[in-house]
Amino acid sequence: MTQSNILYYNPGSVFSNVGVLLLCQKGVQDQFELRPIQMGVDNIAPWYIKLNPKGQVPTLVHHGKPVPDTLAIAKYLDDQFKPSIFAADDAQVVALIERWRQVRVLSLLSGKKTASQDVAQMASTLENSRRQVEEYAKSNPELEEAYKVRLDVHDDRSKILIDHDTYMAHKEGLARLLEDTEKALSDNDGKLLPDRDQSAADAYAVGILHWLKSKLDKDILKSRPWTERYFQEQAARSSFINAFNKK
Ligand SMILES: N[C@@H](CCC(=O)N[C@@H](CS)C(=O)NCC(=O)O)C(=O)O
Fold it and tell me: TM spans, by residue (predicted)?
């Protein structure tokens, strides 16, 4: 393994899981060190903001080159390691990935579930974290633009956690996505997309379903037989087993 080949990630985060799964689907996981970072600390520190201005995980670093964002990682891996298997330039695949990426598990798990829920403590923690980002921006003027990006991400994240309407919108969005997925799998004989056996979209679907089943509701696919079967088939693949036993 080359020292500068790293996947910065957080084992509990859903998109980190997608990142690890992409490496395993590609069969290149042994060429990268999986390096966990401390969320709330490392991800807003200047060294990480330089790699990924959004301050999110995962970020891939290959031969010293940072590639933030899972979709960019899928495209990059297909470009660097042949054969290409992700079809991450196909408009249909990208559209499906964007639908899955709208699932914000943070909102579903820790958002404001009822209009009367007291979120004062959470709001105060978020406010402190925002101040920390502003201080970093002030003391690192060369990263001013990057920290502006982080502040936007921070504010979006805060809304997801403390706004009840946002929670409801995400809950309804997930229900619609699961309904549409069940129908697509039934129409396409068990595949997410017609005419395509596998693509990067599978990493998102199976990574997010795995997270939902293990952290939100183990019975979430109970009345969705096509999706349950699809999940079980994907979970039996060696890439899935490698990705989720390793961490
Ligand atoms: N669009 C990004 C989303 C990444 C993302 O949302 N990461 C979350 C964890 S699942 C994160 O780092 N959140 C921490 C934060 O913003 O403070 C991708 O696909 O890589």
Answer: none
